[in-house]
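Quick log. Single chain, no ligands specified.
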Amino acid sequence: MRRSALVSGIVVLILFALAIGIWYAVISEDRGGKLTVSFLNVGQGDAIFIDAPSGRQALIDGGRGRVVLRELARASPWWDRSIDVVVATHPDLDHIGGLPDVLARYRVGLVMRSSVLDEGSADSAAFDAAADAEAKQGAALLVAKRGQIIDLGGGASMEVLYPDRDVSGVETNAGSIVARLVYGETAFMLTGDAPQAIEEYLALLDGKELHSNVLKAGHHGSKTSSSELFIGFVSPEYAVFSRGCDNSYGHPHAEVVALFKRFEIPALDTCKDGAITFVSDGTTVRRR
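-> predicted structure:
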């Protein structure tokens, strides 16, 4: 009898623990109609994690190495081992270096990349091999081109603004994907390392339609990006520098910091602030 009671008690405890786990998962999965965008702290590099109201998730770039896995573990539930969309804006190490580990660890539905090439790069080859391996497991591969819209569900979508042509022969930064994430009346401008020439080209193409609540400052705050014309049309409430402390490039450059100050745009910095997260309800964006 004692043994039977003990077994019954253990079973009850297991069932109780399972019930708690299930309810915790349900509560955690309820986005409450909110879009969450996190600029992860991966040092000198980019990694942006998007959690849509539908529960679909996207990762844009993955920094230099495995640190992105740690950041993803903090940004998403421990049991979640899937990412719907992974985007490699261009094949520089500080953007794709961590993506092979992400593709190996997570089930991915779609891998998007630019047509720009970095021939002879071991890091680019490693990413290509990881993407091909993911495709064999059922992932779709897509080369980015202007006009493509990735539906993240729940009213959130990501539109590719650039490249608008084959960019296989250009310098890698000039072939970087530029995308605008939209949810309701709110938007996030995600620029990769696009230089000023591309920014100004988009300003001529899209003008006021570039307006976004949050701007990821191009190229980690380098003076090669963040043109006055482009910033004027985007007119963000916040800018974000995704960069490492004491980096050898001097990012963000003093000229760019001064420019955002002149435009009275608060500039946040992953070096100083760690991961930077925004939440949109479709009408307004607030920092969490």
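Residues 111 and 131 are 7 Å apart (CA to CA).
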